[in-house]
Amino acid sequence: MDIPKGKLMAIGGNEDKGTYPNPRTKKKYYLDFFELGILKRFLQEIPAKNPHIEVITTASMIPEEVGERYVSAFGILGIEKVGLMHIRVEEDALLPEYLERIKKADGVMFSGGDQSRLTRMFLHTEFMEILRHRYFNENFILAGTSAGAMAMSQVMIKGGSATDSLLRGSVKIGEGLNLVEGMIIDTHFVTRGRFGRLMEAVVTHPKSVGVGLGEDTGILLTEGHMIETIGSNLVVIMDSHNVHYTNVNEVEKGRPIAIDNMVMHALAKGNLYDFNARRFFKSADAYERSRLKKAT
Fold it and tell me: Tens digits of per-residue pLDDT, 277-286?
């Protein structure tokens, strides 16, 4: 892929905002990560002083509730021009009204829910081509939380139980929205114990790097390859480029997968990772020093 001029923000999510509330729990569906600066950082990356934001709630089964919380959260930060796109069927994604709105928006955000709904609605459509064109050719930011983050990559995790992971075939893989190559994104990563799930996804796609996003945490991707960690939790990188041995192509479905020399990095707020060079940097200053040293 060409080097994009825009930026992607992938957010690990907090509460599950894409399904109906569990009647056995009293938890509510708050967008808590906004309070810790992720939404503010999203706005800081937009050049416009009074930006127009579009929120796409397609992935969610409770789009009106989710949309209201986004409007409220942006309002707290002084942003009034927030549009909501409750696109529920494929035909709606073709409506000229929506196409014009994403052409004019200063920033676009996909909500959480079911990432397969996003690919079913938008993959190979003019709607998605407009977003891809803007991301690659303009100073434009495109964000997604939870399912909206997972759908960004070319190879997308569709599902799979964390408890069954590292048993061949337990992770379901599909085609994502193809905004970034060489990366597989998983979300709600730490609290739901999805380490094995991402390891299996990465080792079956050995040219990719896995990015596990903790809750209340995200990454800002610049130049198509430089990851900066934002938020309060962890980002976990899984790198299988130097795996010495795996039996993933030999064992039968449902049997354990062996992996030798999977490399893992844990990134906290402010740490960077260059997934082209597969290098960790403790800070932006450290990365700049490395660039200057390489240039000389």
Answer: 999 999 999 9
For residue 226, the cross-strand partners are 222, 274
* DSSP of 11-56: E--SS--SSPPPTT-------GGGGGTHHHHHHHT---SS--EEEE
Would you call 172 exposed, middle or buried from its count of C-beta atoms within 10 A (0-12, 13-18, 19+)? Answer: middle
Identify the bridge partners of residue 212 per DSSP, sorted by sequence position.
Answer: 186, 236
Cα separation, 225 vs 3, in Å, equals: 9
Q: Can you tell me the mean pLDDT for 92-111?
A: 96
d(CA 259, CA 249): 11
Give me the sign of the Cα torsion angle 222, 227, 228, 230. Answer: positive
Residue type at 145? T
| Contacts of residue 197, Cβ cutoff 8 Å, sequence gap at least 6 | 157, 160, 161, 162, 165, 170, 171, 186
Nearest to 163 by CA among 131, 192, 140, 203: 192
